[in-house]
Amino acid sequence: HVQNYTMISFIREPSNRFYSSYDEAFFRMGPWMGDPEGQIVWDKPRIRKQYHDSKWRVEKYPYLYEGFETIHDFRRLYCPEEILEP
User: For all residues of the chain together, what is the average pLDDT?
Assistant: First the structure.
């Protein structure tokens, strides 16, 4: 790779058939992964560190996480209503 490229991928609508690598990447770089009080990573300091070490890659695309602040925001979009808590 001689040239410096920036790659961005677009998140598609959720699919019933599989959990794609795009969904996984979107989940792992979400702002909820850096929240030390958040329910996903409060007990996982290495995952929080990885998030903080890598978040610069998505900071130049703020619209990717527009409207997403917590894991609850993510779950409301990606999880079926019947498994969400009321």
Answer: 80
